[in-house]
Amino acid sequence: MEFAIAIRLLHIVAGVMWIGLLYYFNFVQVPGLAQANSEAASGGPGPAAISKYVAPRALFWFRWAALVTWLSGAAYLEASPYGLAGAFSLGMAGDAPSAATTYVGFGAWLGTIMLVNVWGLIWPNQKKVLGIKPATDAEKATARRIAFLASRTNTVLSIPMLMFMQAGSHGLPFFG
Amino acid sequence: MNPLETILGTVIAGVVLAIVLAYVASLIAGV
């Protein structure tokens, strides 16, 4: 179990970094950029510094923390009594089906959907928004909208995901 | 209106989804 405990710590640290940066984007950077854009015409400093110096660094740690979180979570699940198959089958397969296995399985599925959103939608579109990948203004506007909605979707999913991740040990609110 | 347009709508959507999924999970888990 020593390996499992160490990998669980890595999972938690990387997960805090991932979701912390997700909340930074949604609660801080997006409204901050909107204000910077609206005040740029009246003498404000504009959004350039955020886009150039902050956003790329935040996205770097965000997307790699997401991957490390998923990989360490999968390794931990497989080393734990839940088992990877047990969790992803929501407790309907594996050696030790239990309510806790069902709950962590819901968390694992939500986290997996969120990882796909990060690498499949948010990062490819942010590359266009930030000019890392060439794009026209129209393509940038579309990419900005897709990245925004995927990021907001992950913020929605993060709430039940975090609820389920700790439900195996601490229970669900209202039910079970 | 899309609740994802605002932070408040996003958080409310997350809480509502959490409650719905908690109910579904409790049914699957048989508790």
Gap between N and C termini of chain A: 27 Å
Oligomer: heterodimer
Main beta-sheet strand count, sense and barrel state of chain B? none
When the domains of chain B are counted, the total is: 1
Tally of alpha and pi helices of chain A: 6
Structural class of chain A: mainly alpha
Structural class of chain B: mainly alpha
Low-confidence stretches of chain B: none
Question: How is this structure best summarized?
Answer:
Chain A is mainly alpha-helical.
Can you offer a commentary on this structure?
The complex is a heterodimer of chains A (about 180) and B (about 30). Chain A is an all-alpha fold. Chain A has one domain. Chain A contains 6 helices and no strands. Chain A is elongated and about 60 Å long. Chain A starts with a helix and ends in a 6-residue tail after the last helix. The mean pLDDT of chain A is about 95. Chain B has about 30 residues and is mostly helical. Chain B starts with 6 loop residues before the first helix and ends with a helix. Chain B has one domain. Classes of the chains: A mainly alpha (about 180), B mainly alpha (about 30). The interface of A and B includes residues 31, 102, 155 and 159 of A.
